[in-house]
Amino acid sequence: MAGWFRPVGLVAVSTALLLATACGGASLGTDGDNKQSGPVKIGLLVPQSGTYKALGDDMKQGFELYVAQHGGKLGGREVEIVVADEGETADSGKAAAEKLVKQDRVLAVSGVVSSATINGVKDLFENGKVPLVGSNASPTTLTGTRYIWRTSYVNDEPGKALGKHVAEKAGGPVFLIAAGYQAGKDEVEGFKSTFLPAGGKIAGEEVYTPFPGTKNFQPYLAQIEKSGAKAVFCFYAGGAAVDFVKQYRDFGLAGRIPLYAPGFLTEGGVLKGQGKAATGVLTALNYSADLDNAANKRFAPAYTTAYGSAPTTYAMASWDAAQVLDQAIEAAGSTVTSQTVNAAIAKVGDIDSPRGTWRFNSGGTPIQPWYLREVKQGANTVSSELGRLGG
Asked: Is the pLDDT at 77 greater than 80, yes or no?
């Protein structure tokens, strides 16, 4: 790692990156194989508008922090970061990705919030032979790729991480409820895949609430109360997470029926919106800002100092994406092309991460630790490690 990060350094590096962008990348040497001599162009495909802008900001900040901590370089080369707005639809994400690959001719791309976007751009990166080191979206349907890597997790893994633990702790049937779209179904199926073999019982039928139109959860909460459930597993994110957690408390279920969920129920800005209603909520995630390891002690305080809030899993995964590219560009040596960097990504090995050490599996996603977290005094706090997934 470079020395201790200071906000002034981030400002200086960001200014240098902006100046490089203003110059139009004239110093970049490129040819048909996207060979880049001197500075390298890296695309960040993240939402800068719309519903997911907060996630996009976290991801952008995590990536830029790593670059700033390393003197504005990746793999020993100066970096020009080109940001493209993913927006909130597959069409807007695909258009932004095409600009990065075909017009800006970036060496590699990171980011991507939406599963719809990453499915929509699969052929662009695979056929163009440009590596995408994604730091969020990773649907269960994304398989058989050679140029798409993810530093986050497959959508069903937070549910998988929780299943056995909840089966052992619930003391009775568990009610399953989730937003009615693909990610919600992935999480519920992931949960059942480890919950049922561990002896867990489901209270009635799982419920999928209409997405994104559900604002009033009272009828579903009444169903939970009447079901005899000893615990609840849910999947919600964004505004729906705030609404569900607040209404769960207001209905009188908080403190009576433990609430378990994938970590994004209480991750980032939604936790502030939930306020005291989130106290006691239990979640599974691959990261928590209070993890006690050397990499996180370098990352979390620096992020908080620079941006005024604790880092999220989205920021951490983007910091790690920058770290992967740093190692791969260096390993590519004097011949830095999209293809040589992609080949080097496949060989990076163990990553010393704020989440704990991880490495890519054969499918291009992490083999990594998972943690049980509990909301205490307005923050997610690690309770225990749930084990490793991804192998």
From this structure: yes
Q: Where are the beta strands (DSSP E) in 188-315?
A: 207-209, 231-235, 259-262, 282-285
- What are the structure tokens assigned to 50, written together? 């719309």
Residue 33 pLDDT level (bands cut at 50, 70, 90): low
Question: Could you give the CA distance from residue 291 to residue 201 in angstroms, rounded to a whole number?
Answer: 32
- Residue positions counted in the chain: 391
pLDDT digits (tens, 9 = 90+) for 146-205: 999 999 999 999 999 999 999 999 999 999 999 998 889 999 999 999 999 999 999 999
Q: Do residues 98 and 124 touch, judged by C-beta distance below 8 A?
A: yes
First to last CA, the chain: 28
Question: Would you report the helix, strand and coil content of the chain in percent, each value rounded to 5?
Answer: 40, 20, 40
Residue 122 parent element (H or E):
helix 122-128
Name which of 150, 155, 159, 135 is nearest 359 in CA terms: 150
Q: How many CB atoms lie within 10 A of CB 164?
A: 18
